[in-house]
Amino acid sequence: MSQALVEAVGAGAAVASTSSFIPQLIKLLRERQAEAVSVRMYLLTVTAFALWLTYGLMLHSVPLAVSNAVSLALSAAILVLKLRYRDRRGSNETRPAPRQAAKTRSSAADARPLARAPRAPTEAP
C-alpha cells in the first residue's frame, strides 16, 4: 500500500472528525441554550482529545497533534457553552420560542379544523 494513500486516508479522517463538532457549535451559538448537550460526554471528549494531542506531541507527529488540537478547541468550546447556558433553558427573549409539535388526529372525524366559525341557526321543520 502506498504511503500517499495512507496519508490521504488519515487526512480525510482528521478533517471529518474535526469538522463534526462545527454544526453543534453553530447550533449552540445561535440558540443560546444547551439542555440537550451532555456535560459528561463532552468532559470525556475534551479529556480524550487532550490525551491524543499529548500523544501526537510525544510522537512528534504534526498531523496527529494539529488535528487533535483543533478537535480539542472545538469540543472545549462546546463544553464551555454548555456550562454557560446551563441555567438558561430557553430564557433568551430575542429568539422565538420553538414551534410546538402539531397535535395528531386519530380518526377522519377529527380531521376538521380545530377552530370553527359559529353556524347560523337553522329552522326545525
| Biggest sheet record | none
Low-confidence stretches: none
Rg is 26 Å
| CATH architecture descriptor name of the domain at 3-84 | Up-down Bundle
Q: Output the helix-strand order.
A: HHHH
Q: Total number of helical segments? A: 4
Q: Find the CATH topology of the domain at 3-84.
A: Monooxygenase
Overall mean pLDDT stands at 81
Number of strands: 0
Oligomer designation: single chain
Structural class by helix and strand composition: mainly alpha
Shape: elongated
Strand content range = under 5%
- Our measurement of the CA-to-CA distance between the termini, rounded to an integer number of angstroms, reads 93 Å
Helix content, binned percent:
55-70%
Name of the level-1 CATH class of the domain at 3-84: Mainly Alpha
Short description:
With 125 residues, this protein is mainly α.
Descriptive terms for the model:
single chain; 125 residues; mainly alpha; Monooxygenase
Outline the fold blueprint.
Layout: H1 3-19, H2 22-31, H3 39-58, H4 62-84
Your description of this structure?
The protein has a domain at 3-84: Monooxygenase, CATH 1.20.1280.290. Helix content is 56%, strand content 0%. The radius of gyration is 26 Å and the shape is elongated. The longest helix is centred in the middle third of the chain and has 23 residues, at 62-84. The chain is built from four helices and no strands. The relative contact order is 0.13. It starts with a helix and ends in a 41-residue tail after the last helix. The protein has helices at 3-19, 22-31, 39-58, 62-84. Helix 1 (3-19) packs parallel to helix 4. It has 125 residues and is mainly α.
